[in-house]
What we know:
Blueprint: E1 2-3, E2 8-12, H1 18-35, E3 41-44, H2 50-60, E4 76-82, H3 90-103, E5 109-114, E6 123-127, H4 136-144, H5 159-181, H6 188-191, E7 195-196, H7 201-209, E8 214-215, H8 239-257, E9 262-264, E10 276-286, E11 289-299, H9 304-324, E12 332-338, E13 343-353, H10 354-363, H11 366-391, H12 397-413, H13 415-420, H14 422-431, H15 435-444, H16 450-459, H17 465-471, E14 474-478, H18 486-495, E15 499-505, E16 512-518, E17 523-526, H19 529-540, E18 545-552, E19 562-568
Parallel strand pairs: 1-8, 2-6, 3-4, 4-5, 5-6, 9-10
Antiparallel strand pairs: 2-7, 10-11, 11-13, 12-13, 14-19, 15-16, 16-17, 18-19
Helix pairs in contact: 1-2, 1-5, 2-5, 4-5, 8-9, 8-10, 11-12, 15-17
Protein name: HIRAN domain-containing protein
Organism: Thermovibrio guaymasensis
Amino acid sequence: MKVKVKPTLIFESSQLKPEYLVDALFFLSDRIKRLKLRIDAIFPGDPFVLPVAMLLSDKLSVPIKGESFLKEEERVFLLFSFLPFEEVSPQFIYDRVKLFRERFPLSPSLLTLSPEEVEGVDFQLLKAPLERIFSYRFLKEAKKNFFWPVRGEINHISQELWELAKLEAKNLLRVKRIRDSARRYLKDEELTALKSVDSDIELSLWERFKKGILTDPELPKREPEIRFKPEKLFQVKDKILSSVITSLLEFMAQELEYHFPTTLAYSNYEITEREGVLIVPTVREELNGADVVVEFSLKTKKEKDFERLFLTVKKALKEVENSLLKDAFKPQFEWTSDKELGRFNLYLSWFLDKELATKLYNRINREWLLSRLLSRKRTKGEFLEFLKFLKDFNFNLENLITLKSKLSSLWSKNRKLFELKKEQLREILDSKELWSLIGYLCAGTQSLPKELCKFLMEIKGLVSPHQFLAKTSTYWTPVIARRNLRAEWERVIKGKVDFSLKAEPLNPNSPVTYVIQSEDGKFLGYIPKVISHYLAAKERSGKKLKVRELYFEPDVFTENSYWVEIKCL
């Protein structure tokens, strides 16, 4: 039975420690055992939750099972890790719960941890700030085993991930044992760090596991999209004032570029969130001059960078101050900092009168200033050239390399240009049917910046490249081939030999590997794991797979020499 009930939050804490997580898990398992609730299996909803699933499995004596070993009538405890974390998002949890309950309707869900109260799950174990408690090695391997929920899928956990998860579970228990051994030396607040939220957790457990009253998954409401209107940050009618202010800004930016990645914004679309220094000027023109305020916003993880920014800006203005600002209003400095967010803001303000501006104007190196400004315009020109490149895109290895390099380069230079041109960019990607290539580059090879992939998926109306691969019916993918197969490929290309796609599971419970073979049965290579997973799910759900040549490189052998298009019909 599904009703619209509020998820049960069990504990909250001001911080996250491994021992707090284990305490909360043991409390939950003790209550389940006290009520003698039947749980037939535990299912990890995402690979990052595997150590938690192992601890709960051991404590409850309930096996961890995959879809192949579950029955419709069984009561399955569906576990999720952290939110938001890596690819785990509200949309992911929603899709997982929806699809899982179609096959196994008696499936209460548990989210391990989130800094906010989360809708769409039955239980939230802990509300606390997100902190890393698992090793990078485990997280890296778990990411390789992450797939978006799709009808017909069977999830598989690699042996390496399973062994790493066992180590993580042991480490959690070890930390708890150390804490328990030192209990008499700890302060009371350290012993009672978990604050119980649900006043009757046993009733909530009884309703979910005995009566089957489950929370109907739902997504948070999306805020309406704000239309972005580009505007210049300052417009000064007086040409001398405008040139002087521009020259000073470029000079300070140049000095900072030796120490930090630096962005000087002349318009609101250039204000972007990134590592390094962002310079945002504000100018108000007066009768006899201009009020100038410049904000230097530094985002960094190193506290020493704050002082370095301040000293660099001071040094950049020192020569101007000594030679020309002796009898004029000198720049004033103010600053704010937030060490937790790793942000430092330096505010520089001064009044620039026309007499002083004229003196500075005569000192401007016009060739230098022109070269600086032309380099800025060049980025906009490069983006327009890139859009033209996409319109004329034909798949080959050279264009593939150009596409990846231009996307990454332009994204690093100015992300707001992508925001301004996103409708045009989406229309081109739609018309040229390039989304299949973008999906593979983001989820398959991870050769594009993560934030760029997120942006591209957002203009497609999705939240993750894996979500795209789960929903699409067309895949562009390379065939992974060894060098000793080159002769076979030459025979296929020159002789125009037909080839086919074949599924090759090693056994019924192993991941399915799709291979490409010639019409006479010669092995040519295999499809990457991430694509094979979704193809197997589509085929199990009743789709037929059709493969054709996308691009075969006849002369040069690389890992990307042979590309195919696979359609799910």
